[in-house]
Amino acid sequence: MLFSEILRMAFGSLGVNKLRSFLTMSGITIGVFSVIGVMTTVTAMRGSIETGLSILGVNMFQIGKNPTGIQLSGENRRRVEQRRNITLEQAQRYRQLMEGWTDVVCLKVFGRDGPVQVTYANRKTEPGVNFGGTNEHFLVANQYSIEAGRNFTPEDIDLARPFAIIGQDVLRRLFPAESPLGKMIKVGSRTYTVIGTFAAKGSNFGQSQDDIVITPITRFLSDYGAARFSVNIATQAPSQEVYNETVDRAITAMRMVRSLQAEQENDFELYSNDSLIAVFAQVADIVRAGALVISAIALLAASVGITNIMLVSVTERTKEIGIRKSIGARSRSILLQFLIEAVVLSVSGGVVGIAIGVVTGNLLAVWLNAAVVFPWDWAVIGLLTCTVIGVSAGLYPAMKAARLDPIESLRYE
Amino acid sequence: MIAPLPPAAAARSYRTPGNLVIRIEGVTKLYRMGAETVHALRGVNVEIRRNEYLAIMGPSGSGKSTLMNMLGCLDTPTAGRYDFNGKNVAHMVDDELAEIRNREIGFVFQTFNLLPRSDALHNVELPLVYAGVGPAERRERAFEALRNVGLGDRVHHRPNELSGGQRQRVAIARALVNRPSILLADEPTGNLDSRTGEEIMALFEQLYDQGNTIIVVTHEEDIARHARRIVRLRDGLIERDERS
To answer: Which of B69, B117, B126 sits opposite A327 (nearest CB)?
Structure first.
């Protein structure tokens, strides 16, 4: 008996109970969707991080008080919590030590308490503006560019001038119809003069990078209390070739600044693009493992559902089985018919799950500024899994159908 | 008005019986029903030849259903010998029996037993599907079989769009489509009014004339009278075997 014939039969009988088939399929769909959706998103984001935009600027690394990683053991966390803040003086001292080797050292402090709202005249932004203090190297370190006005000068920083450079989102909200340059904006009770605007940068990981206001770090710390903040230091190596050497020098300089003895461990963290990617990969692995667990549970439940519905189907179609046997169907043909039906049910559910998962995952990826991907490997794994589920869920009902006695089945009403 | 039955012996053809198709020798069948053992057949001997038109009669409990299931290779005897076209089927395994049912036996049931969701053509094609016949030939032969029972214009109707008589014709077309050695009909008119029943019996007459071997299992004398030979069963034994 031809395989295509059995396949046609399977689709035929599934079409008879459309709602039931759909409901049974949906379990598989959900299971496959969750894993494919997550894999698509993660793959798309990793691709965009590794190939496209780097998180930090070219050849940059950052030094900060706290590590970016997660799952710190209790002991580690305690040690990190005891670390002293990196003060502005330490950061400036570090900068002096690096002078002559590299000039691009960006100091920055972000994150005042509570959501920041910026106002101008009677207009105001949404709360949650990214507001921080930094220096003239912020542009290079974070790949911003000036659209109008000018960047900070070293003098602005030294003198702690109350200047601000604003992003496009802030510009649109506060100055829809006028030039912002020279205007006074307010953050809380403090006033800053706008001296420049950033060119639009779009969003990254779902966060707008244009909802930003920066001010000289000196000003920021004197306005909001130097003791409360730890300075982040971004350093750019002069070239790729001397990147590692730059990192070594940076660590040495930082240890001097922090007055560490030879036997003491670093009390600061250094992260590069690579280490940030590694952190992302670590997070991605956890998310992926979670998705796999969820989908495994969903698929297990769905396969029980398929077995159940196939058993119902065998009972309902006892007469049909009797008829088929009486006109010469072998047990194997009946077995295959029901087995294929279960596989078709499961694989169709899987295909729908893959489709929804890829679309959803990519929508998420696009929203997070990543390129569209199709996770072939996971799609294939998904389909194979569905086939295995279909066979294993359908085997018992199909064997039951194949073993039915033709005389008894013909009598069944 | 129901048309009067035609006189049983009016203008009917007799065809010379040919080779032996079925030979049953000392066949018994025991069923266990709980603690009791039922002797459905107690040693039946019968021979059926090609071109015969035979009726098996008997009251309920006489063993005629059991004999029919046996003849149709749906069941195997507890003891005794059953040769079908010279092959002993008494000890065949399920798949071999399925093959005999597919190629050598055409069933016609009281309740038609068509697949409700398939049209007439697909129902008739089904035995050919299991015989491994390709789609084009299958279709052609199914068409022909339906034309032969007068349903050439109903091929795409589903069973519920057909009358009882038409459904039974579809079932007969299905039974004959694989050119079986015997047509085995179990109370073929039992679910039909007597007029339609007579039409079906007339069709059987025609099929007999075309060279088919027909076995009808019935408890109705009027139906049995159409056959050329009547085998009467009682209490699991053949009581009489009469030829007209």
So the answer is: B126
Q: B132: which chain A residues are within 8 Å (Cβ-Cβ)?
A: 1-2
Tens-digit pLDDT profile for residues A63-113: 988 776 554 556 667 777 778 889 999 999 999 999 888 888 999 988 766
Name the token pair of A159.
């003198």
Other C-beta atoms lying within 10 Å of the C-beta of residue B32: 8
pLDDT at B1 over 50: no
Contact residues, chain B, for A332 at CB < 8 Å: 95
Q: Is the pTM of this model over 0.80?
A: no
Q: Are A401 and A319 in contact (CB under 8 A)?
A: no
Distance (Å, rounded) from C-alpha A248 to C-alpha A235?
12
Spatial CB neighbours of B231, under 8 Å, sequence gap ≥ 6: B46, B54, B55, B56, B57, B238, B240, B241
Between strands B214-218 and B53-57, the pairing is parallel
Is the domain B20-243 a CATH 2.40.50.140 member? no
Determine the average pLDDT of the residues in A184-207: 86
Read off the tokens for B214.
Answer: 């027909």
As a whole number of angstroms, the distance between CA A213 and CA B144 comes to 86
Would you place residue A228 in the very low, low, confident or very high pLDDT band (cuts 50, 70, 90)? confident
- Beta strands (DSSP E) in A237-287 are 269-272
A357: amino acid identity, one letter: G
Q: What is the ipTM of this complex?
A: 0.91
Mean pLDDT of B120-140: 93
Burial of B134 per CB tally in 10 Å (0-12, 13-18, 19+) = exposed
pLDDT band (50, 70, 90) for residue B153: very high
Q: Which of A1, A326, A330 sits opposite B95 (nearest CB)?
A: A330
The answer, for B5 touching chain A at a CB cutoff of 8 Å, is: no
Chain A residues whose CB is inside 8 A of the B95 CB are: 330-332
The mean of the pLDDT values for chain B is 90
Structure tokens at A40: 């698509």
